[in-house]
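Researcher: Let's do a round of design. I'm pasting the structure tokens now; please hold your answer until I've finished.
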């Protein structure tokens, strides 16, 4: 026991000295990688001293029993050593992340004081225990310190007031529209909601605070968060657009991500020069920033008269649990329990996702399931929302049978069911509900004469069939839908098109020219393509403006039986490397974290085996170009052919031009044509750009080469 005591004294004292050293010199230290790993173990170890210190504190309230003294001494020693070690790891973690902020400072000092208290309780236990009152006071102080320091730690990792959030009342933000300012009332709301856990004054990871104009323009350790008027140089947007798998992507992957609406709002704000104090009403009514900002804060705008409800508000924890990127829940007013729920992302929607709202069904006043695969059966659940007032069913799969189930909703005031199969029978069922005042039923099966009869019977109700047949105002058609995703195929591919507006003609072209309403083929049934095809599609309808063009491409290739990587892809962008280039699945240009191979440190070098000798005249590669995060075309592409994988013949070298400015994100097809040759093996070499051009914010740094598919013809 004496040897353990001596070792414990030495280790704990040395640890305290080292901990104080870290506190004094943390701003001057650079940690090697293995020490950074130790720092990241801080969350793993911290539970041990917490438990041991609480047990030690309990001992001061128990009757003194000498036979247990050695066991208690070991517990106190373990508590002291682990508390000091945890504090040291926390300092390592703080140094490597270069964080700042009041909460981080409080948490570090709290950790130091806990470590010091633990050491004192062990080192001077004999003297402390002589006075029971002093001993018990020390135990209370220690446990209180643990809770307070732990609370600060939870704020750092989970957001402000994480520990006490369930006890807090709902925060019903209200904004006066006439006084609303762009930054404090709109942009700051976005940043606080999605970035506030890590980048507010209380917690400044990477030295960055997004709380005010001075901090935002100053930036963090990697530079300015935004550059007014320049999207490309604004680091905030660069990090947002990185794939989820990139460690520099923001927000962190385990945090709520920005919606497309929020990203568009931030981009419009930066494009407009990042105004901080300007009022929304000072900008033109047609200004895109004003429109986006107004739509975002609409749920928080002060209404002329705040309505009182006879149901209570849902808890913050319940709303947070149910909220995600595809199911957005917002409050509808000052001190109001009323909620609005909107669903996004058809692929992410399910009936279960709707039924999960049971916990807040009483509070839902607005429900938006537009373009979701909602069926008649799901309307049964919706029909039991007791306080529902506004319902958006546009372009869903509901019919008359389902819509009639909503006639019993006593608070429903507005329903929109454009683009559905509702007919006059469904309209009659809705009108039987005396509470419904507004019906928006564009592109449904309801006939104009049925609306005219209903309008005569119910003159005070609004029944809107849209602009169909009107010749006084022209509205642009929605974009047509290409149901068959871009793909690689071996023999042929069947491509299916659609349009949400009934009666719209779909015209397409495959010759590189824009489709027109006369000469281009009319789509009547799925189209078969047997060669490389760049498809362009456009919709037309009498009385409407034509739609925008939608594009897709389909690429033919000979089968490749095996792929060999002679040089490895980067570990972050190298999943399924041997299969990904020939799996007939084109990578998504909006997410280069998956379905793409990335090269930066070395050239990309592959060998492809066709299985047997084939006559080949062309090879192509799909290359992702996203210049903000350094994804450039290669400086050269070279292909060789061989019959035996030993003797190689140079077939072609291509030198793509380096972009001279920022261009839209694209997945570009580079093709290398050569005289037909009979080969079994093909070798491809792609050289990433070694130094980014001078016009790029990261000039001089190496760029990335990204490839998704290798095609042979």
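Researcher: That's everything. Go ahead.
Model: Designed sequence:
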């Amino acid at each position: 026991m004496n040897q353990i005591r001596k070792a414990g004294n030495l280790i704990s004292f040395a640890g305290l000295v080292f901990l104080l050293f870290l506190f004094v010199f943390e701003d001057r230290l650079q940690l090697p990688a293995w020490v950074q790993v130790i720092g990241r173990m801080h969350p793993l170890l911290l539970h041990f001293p917490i438990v041991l210190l609480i047990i030690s504190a309990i001992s001061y309230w128990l009757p003194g029993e000498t036979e247990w003294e050695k066991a208690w001494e070991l517990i106190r020693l373990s508590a002291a050593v682990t508390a000091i070690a945890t504090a040291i790891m926390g300092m390592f973690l703080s140094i490597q992340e270069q964080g700042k902020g009041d909460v981080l400072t409080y948490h570090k000092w709290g950790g130091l004081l806990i470590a010091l208290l633990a050491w004192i309780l062990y080192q001077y236990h004999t003297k402390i225990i002589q006075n029971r009152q002093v001993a018990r006071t020390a135990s209370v102080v220690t446990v209180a310190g643990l809770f307070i320091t732990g609370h600060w730690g939870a704020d750092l990792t989970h957001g402000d007031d994480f520990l006490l959030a369930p006890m807090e009342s709902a925060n019903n933000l209200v904004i006066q529209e006439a006084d609303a300012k762009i930054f404090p009332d709109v942009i700051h709301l976005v940043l606080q909601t999605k970035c506030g856990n890590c980048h507010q004054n209380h917690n400044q990871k990477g030295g960055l605070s997004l709380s005010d104009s001075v901090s935002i323009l100053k930036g963090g350790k990697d530079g300015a968060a935004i550059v007014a008027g320049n999207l490309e140089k604004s680091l905030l947007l660069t990090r947002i657009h990185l794939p989820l798998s990139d460690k520099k992507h923001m927000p962190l992957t385990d945090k709520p991500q920005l919606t497309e609406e929020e990203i568009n709002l931030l981009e419009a704000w930066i494009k407009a020069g990042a105004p901080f104090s300007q009022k929304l009403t000072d900008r033109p009514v047609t200004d895109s920033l004003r429109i986006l900002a107004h739509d975002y804060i609409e749920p928080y705008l002060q209404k002329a008269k705040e309505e009182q409800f006879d149901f209570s508000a849902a808890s913050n924890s319940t709303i947070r649990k149910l909220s995600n990127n595809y199911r957005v829940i917002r409050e509808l007013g000052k001190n109001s329990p009323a909620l609005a729920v909107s669903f996004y992302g058809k692929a992410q929607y399910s009936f279960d996702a709707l039924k999960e709202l049971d916990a807040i069904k009483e509070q839902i006043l607005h429900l938006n399931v537009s373009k979701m695969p909602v069926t008649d059966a799901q309307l049964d659940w919706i029909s039991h929302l007791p306080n529902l007032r506004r319902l958006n069913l546009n372009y869903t799969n509901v019919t008359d049978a389902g819509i009639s189930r909503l006639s019993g909703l006593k608070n429903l005031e507005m329903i929109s069911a454009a683009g559905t199969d509702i007919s006059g029978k469904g309209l009659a069922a809705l009108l039987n509900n005396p509470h419904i005042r507004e019906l928006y039923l564009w592109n449904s099966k309801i006939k104009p004469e049925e609306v005219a009869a209903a309008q005569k019977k119910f003159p005070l109700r609004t029944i809107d069939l849209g602009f169909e047949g009107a010749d006084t105002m022209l509205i642009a058609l929605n974009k047509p839908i290409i149901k068959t995703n871009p793909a690689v195929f071996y023999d042929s591919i069947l491509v299916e098109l659609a349009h949400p507006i009934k009666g719209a003609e779909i015209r397409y072209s495959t010759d590189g020219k824009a489709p027109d309403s006369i000469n281009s083929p009319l789509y009547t049934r799925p189209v078969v393509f047997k060669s490389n095809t760049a498809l362009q599609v456009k919709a037309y309808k009498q009385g409407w403006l034509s739609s925008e063009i939608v594009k897709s491409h389909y690429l033919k290739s000979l089968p490749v039986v095996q792929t060999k990587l002679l040089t490895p892809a980067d570990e972050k962008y190298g999943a399924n490397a041997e299969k990904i280039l020939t799996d007939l699945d084109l990578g998504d240009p909006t997410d280069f974290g998956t379905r793409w191979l990335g090269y930066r440190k070395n050239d990309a070098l592959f060998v492809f085996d066709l299985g047997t000798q084939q006559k080949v005249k062309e090879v192509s590669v799909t290359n992702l170009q996203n210049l903000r995060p350094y994804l450039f075309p290669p400086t050269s592409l070279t292909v060789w052919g061989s019959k035996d994988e030993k003797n190689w013949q140079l077939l072609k070298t291509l030198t793509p031009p380096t972009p001279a400015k920022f261009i839209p994100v694209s997945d570009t097809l580079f093709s290398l044509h050569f005289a037909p040759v009979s080969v079994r093996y093909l070798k491809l070499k792609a050289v990433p750009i070694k130094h980014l051009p001078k016009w790029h914010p990261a000039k001089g740094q190496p760029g990335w080469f990204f490839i998704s598919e290798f095609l042979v013809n």
